[in-house]
């Protein structure tokens, strides 16, 4: 099982994303995660937005022109090919959904803020597109809707140890953030290869190599989706 591979044809990936089932293989989970990280897209000025949408919800796209004190800068560039689906608070788009909305002029992404956390679902803009951390997991598990970090554990069994983690499992922190486990980088299982979105340094789906000690210190708990199979 490879991390960040383009091995599946586009049509097969599209079928995986649009087929919501009660089970998914570990290989399928990783293929879907790779599709988000490697997705290429080209935005226009129409996809840049900073201000309140029609419902009065503040939206800030993580384009390269975005700079705001106290948070990370944006990254994607208008008129250029960018890689990775942007983070959007409350987002649940597949890469294909995202492309369609970008073509329609939706705001490409919407960063996290404390106000978003306070507002929860009421802070989700219908004029933005992308995916957030729990929406990303929900898509990779082929769930019929987005499950929050408060809900994902209800679909899972908690693992006894980090050492039991296998590809497609998650590391969840209640009402905060969730990571998709890909593999251990080392035989001692001290560094985890994880997929996530919304984490530093950029507002997009990425693969990180993180020390297990840091994850434990931050309170991430290991879970296994009941519908996953080898």
From TrEMBL:
Taxonomic lineage: Bacteria, Pseudomonadati, Verrucomicrobiota, Verrucomicrobiia, Verrucomicrobiales
Protein name: Lipoprotein
SUPFAM superfamilies, sorted: Cysteine proteinases (SSF54001)
Source domain of life: Bacteria
InterPro entries: Papain-like_cys_pep_sf (IPR038765)
Organism whose genome encodes this protein: Roseibacillus persicicus
